[in-house]
Structures are given as structure tokens and as C-alpha cells.
Amino acid sequence: AQSVTQLDSQVPVFEEAPVELRCNYSSSVSVYLFWYVQYPNQGLQLLLKYLSGSTLVESINGFEAEFNKSQTSFHLRKPSVHISDTAEYFCAVSGEGQKLVFGQGTRLTINP
Amino acid sequence: NAGVTQTPKFRVLKTGQSMTLLCAQDMNHEYMYWYRQDPGMGLRLIHYSVGEGTTAKGEVPDGYNVSRLKKQNFLLGLESAAPSQTSVYFCASRPGLAGDRGFFGPGTRLTVL
């Protein structure tokens, strides 16, 4: 069965510092990978997704993620974070059947 | 286009009471999902549906039932609520392919006393 592991439950960083949120997955078939963001007291919004082609995908607000098949990873990065990036981030995988399976989430806290 | 809506937004139940959560989508999506979100546990899949009249179990189905009598609606039922079912419940829908993104509702906060 497919699964997702987010290795860090909380990541505190200073404003304008770089950040990496880690995501590893397991699946017996080809996968599609997603990062979602949840701002406080809101629902989930899609940040970016990997379907095929270039292994590096970008979002409109400066985040990027790289699909690494050999390491079964899809880590999320941003070179310089802002206070407004404070949120919880979820990695998700789809591919086996019609399920969309999520990781445990990583809470990103930005300190001024 | 309302997207995905959930009713109610908040609910408090006593142990043993029953209730139904309604999820509605107006995007003609085939797939619909119910998740629960608990601190440190992420989103865990309860049940899902790949089309009208179909349902399937997810990771944590015990204590819940679902129905999808109409394509646009996906109902989640709790027959006898327990405190362990206190959670935030999210509904999502997807068009119908494995690579499709999920569209999420705003969530229902349920407390079982």
C-alpha cells in the first residue's frame, strides 16, 4: 500500500532563511505527488504537484519541490521564507487505485 | 461555482448520539473522500468513493459509514459517536484520474463529549 512519511513534525526558521520540508513515499506503482498548504483555521490548498516530466516543480509563491525516484522523496524547499509562509504543509501521494494518501504534516513556524 | 461545501461547520455530540455530515460538490467530480485531521496524525482517509453508488474503506473506517446516492453528494455517518471521534473532518473531490489534484471543503469540527 502506498504511504507518505514527513520526517519533521515542526520546523522553526528565521524570516528570510531557506527551508526544506522533507517527504518520503512508498508505492508499488508509478506515483503522482502533491504538496498542500493549510493556513491557520482554513482548509487545504494545493501548493504544487508532480505528474511527469521535469523532476523539479515550482509554485507561484516561490516554493519548489524535486521528485527523486531513487530516493523515493519529494522534498519541498524555499530559498527565503516570509512570515506569511507560516502554515502546516502536507505531502500526498496518488497512484494505487484512486486513493489520495497524506503524510503527517509539517508545521512551519517563521520567527522574525 | 461553490466548489466543495460541508455541512455543518461545527457540531457537539454526546457519546452514543448519531449524526450525518454532508459533503457536496458542484464540479461533476467522480472521486470523493472523507478524511479526519488530528494533531500529529495528518489527514487520515476514512472512506472514499470513485463514482455514484460506490464506496470503499480507507485507513480508519471503523465507526463510520458512508453513502453516495447522488454524484454530487457524499455523506459520512456516525451511528454511535465516541469521544475518539472528536476531530476535524474534511471532504475532498477529484475529477477522476490518479494525477488529478484534490479540492477540499472548509472542514467540520466535531466534538464528542
Report on the structure:
- The complex is a heterodimer of chains A (112) and B (113).
- In chain A, 0% of the residues lie in helices and 52% in strands.
- In chain A, a hairpin with a 5-residue loop joins strand 7 (56-58) and strand 8.
- Chain A has 112 residues and is an all-beta fold.
- In chain A, the strands form three sheets. In chain A, strands 2, 5, 6, 10, 11 and 12 form a six-stranded mixed sheet that branches. In chain A, strands 3-9-8-7 form a four-stranded antiparallel sheet, with no helix packed on it. A two-stranded antiparallel ribbon of chain A has the order 1-4.
- Chain B is mainly β.
- In chain B, 0% of the residues lie in helices and 50% in strands.
- Chain B has strands spanning 4-7, 10-13, 19-25, 31-38, 42-49, 56-57, 65-67, 73-78, 87-94, 103-104, 108-112.
- In chain B, strands 2, 4, 5, 6, 9, 10 and 11 form a seven-stranded mixed sheet that branches. Chain B has a four-stranded antiparallel sheet with strand order 1-3-8-7, with no helix packed on it.
- The mean pLDDT of chain B is 94.
- The interface between A and B is medium-sized, with 24 and 25 residues.
Structure at a glance:
The complex is a heterodimer of chains A (112) and B (113). With 112 residues, chain A is mainly beta.
Q: CA-to-CA gap between the ends of chain B? A: 36 Å
SSE sequence of chain A, one letter per element? EEEEEEEEEEEE
Share of helix of chain A, binned: under 10%
Shape of chain B: globular
Number of helices of chain B: 0
- The total count of strands of chain B amounts to 11
SS field, number of helical segments of chain A? 0
The shape of chain A, in one word, is: globular
How many strands, what sense, and barrel or not for the largest sheet of chain A? 6 strands, mixed
Q: How confident overall, as mean pLDDT of chain B? A: 94
What separation lies between the terminal Cα atoms of chain A? 41 Å
Q: What is the SS-derived class of chain A?
A: mainly beta
